[in-house]
Amino acid sequence: MRIHRIELREIALRLRERFEISSGGRQDRRVLLLKLEAGDHTGWGECVAAEDPGYSYETTETAWSVFDEFLIPGVLGQEMEDARDLLGPVEWVRGHRMAKAGLEMAAWDLEARRRGVSLADLLGGRAGEIAVGVSVGLQPTDEALLSNVARYVDEGYARIKIKIKPGRDVDMLGAVRQAFPDLPMMADANSAYTLDDLGVLKALDRLELMMIEQPLAHDDLLDHSRLQRSLDTPICLDESIRSVRDAELALELGAGRIINIKPGRVGGFSQARAIHDLCLDRGVPVWCGGMLESGVGRAHNLALASLPGFSLPGDISASRRYWERDVVDPEFELRGGTMTVPDGLGMGVRVREEDLPLLTRRVEVFES
Ligand code: OSB
Ligand code: MG
Fold first, then answer.
1. What residues act catalytically?
2. Per-residue pLDDT of the chain (368 residues; tens, 9 = 90+)
3. Closest atom of ligand 1 to CA, residue 293
4. Is 312 strand, coil or helix?
């Protein structure tokens, strides 16, 4: 097969509520969508790069540039066995895994449609229903946080994740624990602490958290392993894991006991599956994280989360938790704390292409 046409598009999407993490906040998203065509088949992908380099060095702007100059010219028109071999010709490009993932995941969607199966089936997924959680951003006050948590608990989310940063941690989470003694709850620091904060991190250990996500620097597996040895609460790694090699090193070092797999962060489904397989083999639980995706990325995440190693609820929340109107039909809805994995062709939801012109900030078409 040959991919003969690629559409690269930036759309503007406004979150219903501002979302804040330790490195900063945002309400307006600049989302990159990719549409691949091979023969009569189409595949959709989304690049999860954020607007600013607070979570990763990649941004909407760097991804656009790398797509335009290297990745798209590298794969367009190449003869390939299977759309899953898509990234072969651009393996030499160092890093830029979020950009690579946007293309690779679109190719998987295309491949699934070409074979007449769902993306979840093509990936080897089993589960039809996935227990899901919600990620709650930093709130200006404890009252605001408590009312947000109460709302999501009412809606039925299977676990609540709360963003923390120095000064908004032990007391704040203690208030949530007091109001919700049995709530499955966890914290995500997005790298806001160092080992100098050991006192605070040990105080979190008393709150019966399911896990503490990425407490230390994105590139510091050694200190995570030192920290894990002095905590009972499992550490979950997010930013630290960019590849299966990172995962292997992290597990070897004891830098964490749980991994948050985001296919959009690790370079796509092939890497995500390799990390999943490694963790399944080692008895390490994994869950599927999110990057405030549109319905395209959400569909991909849900398909991945149907694999057997995803034993913990992920950050795959309903479309309404993010957007007034999602870009796919049907939108994703929560039922009894679970979400249904689409079983239609490919990612199983339709991109509302009729809505795209109004949302589009720029579009570039590549043909060969
Ligand atoms: O650390 O998991 C994170 C959003 C943007 C960047 C990083 C993270 C997050 C989330 C939101 O926690 C997850 C989601 O609901 O998409
Ligand atoms: Mg995280």
1. 163, 262
2. 999 999 999 999 999 999 999 999 999 999 999 999 999 999 999 999 999 999 999 999 999 999 999 999 999 999 999 888 899 999 999 999 999 999 999 999 999 999 999 999 999 999 999 999 999 999 999 999 999 999 999 999 999 999 999 999 999 999 999 999 999 999 999 999 999 999 999 999 999 999 999 999 999 999 999 999 999 999 999 999 999 999 999 999 999 999 999 999 999 999 999 999 999 999 999 999 999 999 999 999 999 999 999 999 999 999 999 999 999 999 999 999 999 999 999 999 999 999 999 999 999 999 99
3. 16
4. coil
**Which of 10, 74, 75, 65 has its CA nearest to residue 37?**
75
Q: How far is CA 142 from the centre of its chain?
A: 27
Q: Residue 332 is encoded by which pair of tokens?
A: 């994703």
- Of the ligands numbered here, which is closest to the C-alpha atom of 160? 1
| Distances from the Cα of 347 to the Cα of 111, 222, 331, angstroms | 10, 38, 13
Overall pTM surpassing 0.90 (yes/no): yes
Closest atom, ligand 1, to C-alpha of 213: 1
CA angle 281, 238, 273 (to 5 degrees): 40
Alpha helices, H only, the chain: 60-66, 72-75, 97-115, 119-123, 142-155, 170-179, 198-204, 221-229, 244-253, 263-266, 269-282, 295-304, 319-322, 356-359
Going from the Cα of 35 to the center of ligand 2, the distance in angstroms, rounded, reads 27
Gap between the Cα atoms of 268 and 99, Å rounded: 9
Residue nearest ligand 1's atom 14 by CA? 290
Direct distance between the N- and C-terminal alpha carbons of the chain, in angstroms, rounded to an integer: 13
Pocket of ligand 1 from Cβ distances under 6 Å: 21, 55, 135, 188, 190, 238, 289-292, 315, 317
